[in-house]
Amino acid sequence: MTTRKPELMRTYGPGNPLVFSHIPKTAGTSLRVALEQALQPSVFVQGVDTALLAGYDDLDAISPAERAALYLTPDELPADATLVAGHIGPATTMARYPGADHITILRAPQVRILSQWMHGRALTEFNLRHWGPNAEAFRIAWRPLREYLDHAMLAPNIDNTITRFVAWPHPALTRTEFIVESDDDALLGAALERLDTFGYVNLVENPAFQEQLGAWLGRELPETRANERTAVPKRKRPDMSVELDEPTRELLAYRTRIDTRLWTAIAARVLPDADPAQVLDAALQKTVDRYQSMLAQPAEPITLRTAVGRAYEVAIKLRPSRR
Question: Distances in Å between the alpha carbon of 84 and those of 32, 149, 167?
Answer without folding.
Answer: 9, 30, 19
